[in-house]
Amino acid sequence: MIDDEILEKYQMTVGIECHVQLSTTTKLFSGADNDARDKSPNSVVSPIDYALPGMLPVLNYKAIELAIRAGKALNSEIARVSRFDRKHYFYPDLPKGYQTTQMYQPIILAGSINIPLEDGGSIDVRINHAHLEEDAGKLTHHGDHSLVDLNRAGTPLIEIVSEPDIHSAAEAKAYATELYRLMTYAGVTNGDLYHGNMRFDVNISAALIGAGKLGIRSEVKNLNSFRSVERAADFEFRRQVALLEAGEMVVQETRGWDEASQTTTSQRSKEDAQDYRYMPDADIPPIVLSDDEIGKIQNSMPALPPFYRQQWQGFGLDVTVVNALLLSQSIAQLLQRVYEKSDNNTARRVGLWLSIISGDQGDVDGNLGDTNIKVTDNQFIGLSKMVEGGELNSTAAKEVLLEMLTSDKDPHVIAVEKNLIQVSDESAIALIVDEVISDPICAKAVADFKDGNEKVIGFLVGQVMKKSQGKANPELAQKLIRERIK
Amino acid sequence: MTISDIQQKIKDSSARAVIENALKLADEKSEYHALLSLTAERALRRADDIDSGKIVGKLAGVPFVVKDNFLAFGAPTTAASKMLEDFNAPLQATAVEKLEAEGAICIGKSNLDAFAHGGSTENSAFRPTKNAVDRTKVAGGSSGGSAVITALDVVPFALGSDTGGSIRQPASFNGVVGVKPTYGAVSRYGVVAMASSTDTIGVFTQNIADAEVVMDIMAGQDERDMTTLPDFFEIQNDLKPNQKIGLISDFMTDDVDGDVREKINKYADKLRQNGHIIEEVKLPMAEYALAMYYIIVPAEICSNLARYDGIRYGLRAENAINLAEVYGKTRDEGFVTENKRRIMIGSFVLSSGFFDAYYLKAQKARTLLINEFNKLFTSYDVLIGPVTPTTAFGLGENTSDPIKMYLGDIMTVPTSLAGLPAISVPAGMDKTGLPVGVQLIGPMKSDAKLLSLAKSLEDK
Predict the structure, then answer these.
(1) Residue A152 shares a structural domain with residue A9
(2) Contact at CB, B307 and A281, closer than 8 angstroms
(3) Do the beta carbons of residue A47 and residue B91 sit within 8 Å?
(4) Last residue within a domain, chosen from A260, A292, A324
(5) Bridge partners, A111 (sequence order)
(6) In whole angstroms, what is the distance from residue B457 CA to residue B460 CA?
(7) Residue in chain A nearest B222 by alpha carbon
(8) Do A166 and A189 belong together in one domain?
(9) Per-residue pLDDT tens over the stretch A301-318
(10) Nearest Cα to A155, choosing from A180, A202, A189?
(11) Are A320 and A354 part of one and the same domain?
(12) For chain B, which ranges sit under pLDDT 70?
């Protein structure tokens, strides 16, 4: 293992290619169902996807619309003229013997996006370009034979190619995560990472700081979670630094990520690189877009994460909490509605509640997808008002919140039903306080408090809460205890 | 017999009698090897449906033949290759569907150079087709079977595909009308692709009027082929008088057979007698068209043939022990020498480091050629010239010399590269009695006008 001291002498440089599966109903060049999830093999394959003789591609204009949306989310220019090309190689999951892609004139041109980091800072990552292309099918290997499933063949993808502007594993993860937010918000993809809706190829190199040039890179392909992007970058960096420190060369190659061992392994070196014999695809006329068409689509898009970040600045929420909330568009929209109907304090409180709920519901990767929170903005605002007005303490508020997740009842109704309304009637609490002070169990605490031990007040308040079945207003209880014992 | 003769016969007897007769004729002419298969059962069933009134249409009961690179029901679609010898299409080409929708009846599938690579039909993986006029001569190609079956009067029309002359040249060699429409006029859907940027779907007929009828039915936009144009084909009843016609002098040099030139000049004289103005014009880029063509087209061929890999359909080599062998052996057994030659040329010109020097340069030259045509069409309505430098050559005469074979395409490829409509019209016989064709070339979408001009001379 390499010490951190040695690692610090090196700079990591990372560029990421991200494949985003588009949420179109049908495939990029055929009318076949684009949702292959839970479908039996080869059941959503048209003669075009199957590459029967004489079949021709028919471009799905919905994919163009989504690319135009993606371009806006990526803060990148849309090409007024773009074209499709053919990338040739033989593999059983590639029916035509070529992948239809955009080599020479991609639809999304250069741009730059700001990536918020967990430490509160941010980096700018330039986008080189992004192009439309079709996905290949899948092979499964069974001992002495392999089977081909073409369900995924022809699924539209956007490949987003970044410049090498990323310099740590945490930045790599933050970039991947922000792409996820941008692409889901823009409605470009369903963002189902488990089913490979977004896949990352991470190019990593290491060089001595101040070397003035980049090291030889390796590419770790097909990562499908933010965490694996981070870990693969970290592992590769350490592996490369170890090689360099030992006086060896890094080999330019493609590597695979092994989730079980959390390591990368060599798949093929540059020497085996294929000549893809790119050529323009004469079956598909150029895509010509006017400013009007682009504007129409981009102007009707929903708000993107940077908008919410800017809006929520005054809430006083931690960057980590904001980023976690922003993983789900529906949560972001909900919180924004709460904010628009109330104020910073309410929004802050609701934001924290939402982060608790979504933390429970999201998977390990923070992948919320289409989070199914049915609580309305008005329920949240109502709940917040009850806390603010002293009707509910924070523990009771959480209990009401849990009930709200499965019920459309007003939070006040829930609190009453559950008998959680805080007692803020001074005389009622005073009775309980007196009871506690005279209770023999509390005699020592009362004596200690009189001797100036401030800490025991917490115990005494706890006793009041217990006797009141959690309903007493703890602040009021404390005030009365102090008055009584002095 | 023309389409109207056939229609009269159907009235006098029945569609079944007409189809039975066509099938019988096809059988009698089998020694020409014009057809690879008959679709008798399906054809007779459709004939009965016409006789019972179930199917109606402009061509109800009229028999036709399709080149065997069109996906069609009733027989395998082989593209005259071992690769697809047993391939039964699950759907039909748009052109076939449109004709069937008008009641036409496909009776069989015609021979071609395998995957339409060639100019003699000798590259068929099965057997060469013989010339309709002289059985020792080639049929021409690649649509040789369709030309011969039309010339033999088995059917009034047959479909072909023309990528660099594959309709016009065999039409010329067999003395029939051959139409290569504007690129995009007729849907390519369901036709085994050769070169996507120059493939066109057209027809062979015995006279111009029939070509007009068939083109009128086939032409039009198809949502399954993005390169198709909105229907612009409209049969012309009035001929534009005093047309300005350019005789392409680059096609009338000493390299061209004297008999051929004489027939072209005679055709030009006839045009002149009809009041049109004939002038000699130059098309200097034509000299480079063959070089462009044999770079661009093989590039597209190597791409379009990549799907024949033995995985999903068609031939799969039996003795392959791993994936590389499945590919290698399947493609070795499934393709003929000319297919492999073009795949290799195409792979070479597209390979990294050579793309700019060959493919890109050829595409730039292609633009210059198109510009030259466009410029000529600002002054001329039509261009004319020969279809081929010679009349039909002997079977086996050129098979060992691919360059000589390619040179035969020199006058047909320029229009293919430019996407222009061009028709081949019978213009008499050479001294040995072999047919000579004249080529009429027009600007984009002038297909119907070309036919109308040719028809005006045909009547005289």
Answers:
(1) yes
(2) no
(3) yes
(4) A292
(5) A76, A127
(6) 5
(7) A58
(8) yes
(9) 999 999 999 999 999 999
(10) A189
(11) yes
(12) 459-460
Domain stops at, among A264, A292, A320: A292
Question: Distance of CA B291 to CAs A329, B285, B366, B390, B444, Å?
Answer: 57, 11, 10, 20, 23
Contact of A103 with chain B, judged by CB distance below 8 Å, is answered with no
Indicate if A181 and A327 belong to the same structural domain: no
Task: Please give the positions of B annotated as active site.
Answer: 67, 142, 166
Q: A123 to chain B nearest CA, in Å?
A: 36
Return the structure tokens found at A324: 């976690």
- CA–CA min distance A221, chain B (Å): 23
- Domain assignment present for A201: yes
- Nearest residue on chain A to B72, alpha-carbon basis: A54
Quick: pLDDT tens for B103-159.
999 999 999 999 999 999 999 999 999 999 999 999 999 999 999 999 999 999 999
Give, in order, the Cα–Cα distances in Å from A441 to each of A430, A460, A462, B149.
Answer: 18, 10, 13, 113
A29, A30, A52, A100: which to substitute to probe chain B, counting the most B Cβ within 10 Å? A52
Q: What was the ipTM of the complex prediction?
A: 0.97
CB contact under 8 Å between A97 and B79, yes or no, is no
Per-residue pLDDT, A370: 46
pLDDT at position A372, please?
67
Domain count for chain A, please give it.
Answer: 3
Q: Are residues A176 and A41 in the same domain?
A: yes
Q: What is the DSSP string of A32-77?
A: SBS--TTPPTTSS--TTTTT-TT------HHHHHHHHHHHHHTTEE
3-state SS string for B207-247 = CHHHHHHHHHHHECCECCECCCCCCCCCCCCCCCCCCEEEE
Judge contact between B439 and B385, C-beta under 8 A.
yes
Residue whose pair of structure tokens reads 């003699």 in the numeric block: B120
Residue A408 lies in a domain: no
